Q: What sequence folds into this?
């Protein structure tokens, strides 16, 4: 049997049982083991199981190479340009299996474990120390050490059901600490997205970011802007939709990461409107968090409009004052300018920006009752999100009256039954009767392709 250098916690001394893993994950682990490979469940799933939380997904690590995995599993697809990963496709789940990887010195000529051939420089960093490429196979310990935080580097070994801890993750888990593996300054510069991940895990798990880690995070916050803009967009959504968005937002602001990612919005947040500071962002996140806790979900356009709507409306008003814009043109220009402003840091997909524009222009129609041809408005596919936006933002008596008017109108004008996309509307509210564009069903994906590609 292979021996490991890390601390080994035997089955009798930890609470994780095979029953806590998904059946597919257990089957895949067994198949690897039965074919002579090392097979671990790793990362977030081990962390979450030890904390008594339900894992979002199951990641496996093994010494089988991608080619061997392809042979072993018929449902295997290899993905990733930078580092080949195997996705095992099951009916309702995708399990990611990665060959143990090492973070190595720039210019190393690594050998593949089983084939003994060179794969070229393994880790390529830019002049500032950011990892551009990293594709070296390694040992289980190296694999654990190249992970981001100690609490994310624990392994569950199917060979004897033990947990292996190479980096002190169990102690940090007990103490509730987020700590990078190795020097935080180096690890944050190597991959600035780790700063956002540190904030997300601290907020979500109710953990503290270790003191030196926090100092580095604050000092290096401006490096966040160096990560790939599509990846920052994906990561931002994960933070804001984590269910602890407000806590994430506070940490983002305090650390300076928010200012690095959203410089113009940050400057605006620090100004005041009629002597009141802008508090909409934080308030909107409180609402989003509480509704996520109640089981609702939010589309990216609705979430972003809830957060940035006030900023966009003020921008549109300024453009109108400058002259030459109709209200609709000013709104279109404001959304376009906002997306452009963000593009160097956080790349908002065009479709999402269009959705935001639809929600905001919908408000103009919602604010006129009965308005022109209200029936033609409520059957539009973007009505549902616009109406939900009105509901979530209507704090004034006027807003509440509007919401009530449209609710009655909807009740009096029932629409033919259509497919409703899950989570897009609130159960029990009038929006539940609204038409939604029929969506193609999708398999539950584990991670966005952007994040997959970008993860070093
Ligand atoms: P969750 O899936 O609940 O958001 P997670 O910890 O599983 O959390 P994933 O993004 O699924 O996060 O990543 C799986 C594992 O891959 C992590 O636990 C960590 O060990 C490693 N990892 C992810 N991103 C990075 C990164 N940027 N740098 C180093 N290791 C990373
Ligand atoms: Mg995960």
A:
């Amino acid at each position: 049997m292979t021996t490991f250098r890390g601390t080994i916690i035997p089955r009798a001394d930890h609470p994780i049982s095979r029953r806590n893993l998904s059946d597919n994950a257990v089957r895949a682990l067994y198949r690897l083991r039965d074919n002579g490979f090392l097979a671990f469940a790793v990362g977030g799933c081990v962390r979450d199981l030890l904390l008594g939380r339900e894992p979002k997904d199951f990641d496996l690590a093994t010494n089988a190479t991608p080619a061997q995995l392809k042979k072993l599993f018929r449902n295997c697809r290899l993905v990733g340009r930078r580092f080949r990963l195997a996705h095992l496709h099951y009916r309702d789940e995708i399990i990611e299996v990665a060959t143990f990887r090492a973070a190595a010195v720039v210019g190393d000529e690594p050998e593949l474990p089983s084939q003994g051939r060179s794969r070229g420089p393994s880790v390529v960093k830019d002049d500032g120390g950011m990892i551009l490429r990293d594709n070296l196979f390694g040992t289980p310990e190296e694999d654990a050490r190249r992970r981001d935080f100690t609490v994310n580097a624990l392994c569950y070994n199917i060979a004897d059901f033990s947990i292996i801890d190479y980096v002190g993750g169990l102690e940090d888990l007990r103490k509730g600490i987020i700590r990078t593996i190795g020097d935080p300054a180096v690890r944050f510069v190597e991959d600035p997205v780790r700063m956002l991940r540190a904030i997300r895990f601290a907020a979500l798990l109710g953990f503290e970011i270790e003191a030196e880690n926090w100092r580095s995070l604050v000092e290096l916050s401006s490096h966040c802007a160096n990560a790939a803009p599509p990846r920052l967009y994906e990561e931002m959504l994960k933070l804001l939709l984590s269910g602890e968005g407000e806590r994430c937002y506070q940490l983002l602001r305090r650390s300076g990461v928010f200012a690095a990612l959203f410089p113009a919005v940050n400057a605006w947040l620090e100004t005041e409107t009629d002597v009141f500071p802008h508090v909409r962002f934080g308030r909107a996140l409180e609402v989003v968090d509480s509704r996520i806790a109640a089981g609702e979900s939010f589309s990216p356009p609705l979430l972003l409009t809830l957060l940035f709507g006030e900023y966009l409306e003020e921008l549109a008003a300024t453009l109108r004052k400058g002259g030459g814009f109709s209200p609709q043109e000013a709104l279109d220009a404001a959304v376009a300018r906002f997306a452009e402003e963000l593009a160097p840091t956080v790349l908002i997909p065009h479709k999402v920006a269009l959705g935001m524009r639809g929600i905001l222009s919908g408000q103009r129609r919602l604010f006129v009752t009965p308005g022109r041809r209200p029936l033609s408005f409520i059957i539009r596919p973007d009505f549902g999100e616009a109406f939900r936006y009105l509901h979530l933002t209507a704090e004034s008596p006027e807003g509440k009256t509007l919401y009530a008017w449209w609710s009655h109108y909807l009740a009096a004008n029932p629409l033919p039954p259509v497919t409703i996309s899950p989570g897009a509307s609130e159960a029990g509210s009038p929006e539940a009767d609204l038409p939604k564009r029929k969506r193609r069903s999708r398999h539950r994906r584990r991670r966005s392709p952007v994040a997959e590609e970008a993860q070093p």
About this structure: The first helix runs from residue 23 to 34. The chain has 20 helices and 16 strands.
